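request received
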Amino acid sequence: MKLGYPRALTYYDYYPFWAGFLRELDIELVSTPPTNREIMEIGLKKAPAETCLPIKILIGHLNVLSDVDAVFLPRLISMEENTYLCPKVLGIPESVMGTIPAGLEVVTMDINWRAGAHHVHKNLIQWGKCLGKSKHQVLQAFNEGQRWLQTYYEMRNKGWSFDESMESFENIAETGKFKDLGLIPRQSAGIELPQDVEDEHRPTIALLGHSYLTNESYANLNLISKLAEKANLRVVENVNHRATMEKQKRLKKDIFWSHARAIYGAGESYLDDPEVDGVIYLSCFGCGTDSLTNDLLARRAKVEQKPYLVITLDEHTGEAGLITRLEAFLDMLERRIRHESHLPAHGKCLDYHSSSI
Amino acid sequence: MKVTFPHMGNAWIIIQALFESLGVEFVVAPFNSKQSLNIGTKLAPESACLPLKLNLGNYVEAAKLGADTVAITAGTGPCRFGYYGESERLLLQDAGLNYEFILLEPPEGRLLGLAERIRYLAGRKNSWAKIVRAVQFAYRKSVVMDRIEILIHGFRPRAQNPHEADQLYEEAKRRLVLAMTDEGIQGVVRWLQARIQEKQAQHPEGLEIEPLNIAVIGEIYTLLEPFSCCEVEKELGNLGAMVDRSIYLSGWVGQHVFQGLAQGYRPLKPYYRLAKPYLNHFVGGHGIETIGSAVHFARQGYDGILQILPLGCMPEIVASSILPRIQEDYKIPIMTLTFDEHTGQAGIQTRLEAFVDLLERSRHREEANRGGLIHAHT
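response:
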């Protein structure tokens, strides 16, 4: 059996789990190619106008799947205790059913960590039963999947770029070279950190945002590499879970979306971190969770006097506009560094200060 | 402590009854208006949804009347509404208003925590038995409120002119606000029924009208708060359509406050079963109710369905991408209207008129089909 996985939305956080899980069950999992013009255009044409860019991209990917027995679209309700994913993710697969090419079968199941690990196991076992896999096999596969996912998180945490870390999982899934590539030996030898290229003279920027936007290099116009050229870059995935949870305590009520929680936690850590010169929040038009998280972080940035830029993506985002805004932001950071932060980070007193420079 | 609460249509009548019988000091914010929306839009993040903006407007206006505490329900998502309380508190703080927020939810799932909060809100002088009685009475009042709305929905397309219906509705609401006994609230319904019969006896030709049946479904705030949806129900009624709605206040209270123990005037329960073939899992907010109610109304033989939502509402966007399949399966026209702070009355009016025209024409065609008139030519 060969399943196809669209390289969009949940791919960016949970693909390694499915790759490990399905490989252990002898089911082949292939992902679609990275987003390109054609995929984007199909997505924009077929998706309802009101939904957000990541869902439109997902619909584009679903339409270029070929040579597979079925498309794999699990419904991820909750991937962490006491949290949910965004309602639009909960609505998958039904909400994209109408846009899938006729004849393409959909394989789905519910994953709900809110209801506890037992519930997740039960669902997976039941699903496995339909495919003739035993309980033991499924549980073993589950553990394998979890191990892959943890390794992936660890790689990201230690500063591996998204492409670098995902490449190893993609290759394993496709060629079955798991043993040769060997995650374990590499891990026990200590994951090789990418060479420390951080330059003290360059500003340090933290990029916040949903993983499916920050790593979606076609839609965000290569934002990460553009920034990496000019600055030392930190991302949400570099902040570990414990620090994220620690920062939640600043709110009277915990955020209940797992992604928003991670973004908020990372944002707070970077705003506290004196090494970080500026923060960029990458959002997309119509993102419901971002409208609240962004507001929480923008308020804190004001208090901390840290430059804070919000970039909102949609299908009409043009490269020239993006570059202009990034350049202006970087210029501001540079001037702030030169003037030892005597330059305000946001509007209000700008006139007063700039007249003295 | 002077408590206020955000507006949601006629919910204030019910909440007022509750606070009054408990002797809690409260302020009813001025009704939603262009001004409250402007205030809210200025304070809220641009991409926040319409209800949050209106809520903020309500709080600011209530503060001028002396309110210092907000009571609001919350939840654990995944709809944004669950986080409104904390978000609104911080936004108001920025605006220089130090409101205290009482979130009516079990904090971290502890029911005891919820009980403490209710205790705090109701004050020490009320016994639990009294609180329960007050809640029960408020609930019965909400059922009556819904009956009044439904009676008006039925009367509006048959009224001689729109003002007749408006007048009756306003008067009934005024009487309901004052009624604080079971006897009294039932009296309001009887009064309204008698008035409607009187009007219809004067103009019996109204009874011969066979109005179009249109169902309005969608997000609860836009459904219940006429200001936020440019009064679509009233407009449709004035265009000669009999309107029904997927969610009534008592149904929502029954499902969410009493956890399904009370059913309300229009229970939400059947929707979950009806939605199954199209949406197998809840998606937060009222996404699944929207799907279930669309199937419900389609099966009842309604002429058309109108889905309304605030711009960017996540659960309703999921629902609206599934609705085309119901439209296909049941051959029922479904239109979606989105509302935000820029929505203009005239634009909505035009679209409603076009929708009603379309339904009118398809009905005529069907009748003609049945009579064999069009068959002869095809």
